[in-house]
Hints:
Layout: E1 28-32, E2 43-44, E3 48-54, E4 57-62, E5 73-79, E6 82-89, H1 96-100, E7 120-127, H2 130-135, E8 143-144, E9 160-177, E10 186-193, E11 195-197
Antiparallel strand pairs: 1-2, 1-7, 3-6, 4-5, 6-10, 7-9, 8-9, 9-10, 9-11
Amino acid sequence: MSKPADATNYIYRMGTAPNTRVAVTQKNKIYGYMVNASSPGFQQMGAVSEFGHDESRSVEPVRGVGFGDQIAELVPGVTEPMTLTLNKTLLYALNLFQAVGYKGGVEGLVRSLKHHRWPFDIKQELVFSEIAGKYDLDGAVVKNASISSPQGNGFITPIRALFTFFEGCWFESYSASYTSDAAIVAENSSVKVTDVIDGVSMYGEFIDTGLAPIGANGGAGKGFSLRFAGGSQPAVGQVA
């Protein structure tokens, strides 16, 4: 069941959003491989009520006997799988399983997590406001969104967006609530993510994440911790 055209279904009618430098939820678009979509690739999900992501990892201190109450170094541990919160309002012809590509609802038998045999991907597209896209990017690497601003309005066209791809996702939990004191049926889910990428950058050991004390050309980096100043020796005025 593909998403109907905006002209034939008011549910998917696109509205406008304020032009601010602060990011707003109205410009955060969520995409999935909608089952039986009219065109291949990601399709924007409709009626998403909440989307969020959360991850954590332990950071363990290293200490040495005889050196007082002092931390020698903090060592990051293994990162736990990222968790997405993906909640949606249930539509008769399109539920959350269908929105990410499973043949559920009116499309097939998928009714339970045990029916999910393959992982799915989710794309997040944070569309920049026209004022931020024109004045604040300053050489930042962002992609073009799937929409364009009208010509002749004094702002850039097309609109820019920040893309994030969540790969190899599995539902960890799913619930739908039908209550006597509320008309709307809410679908709530928790999703585990295998990996997160931007779809553009070179991925690997030497990816440029910033804060490196050594630049790509072997020279000094920029903005690194004072711990690495002067070959990791105490800086002038510091006590060894």
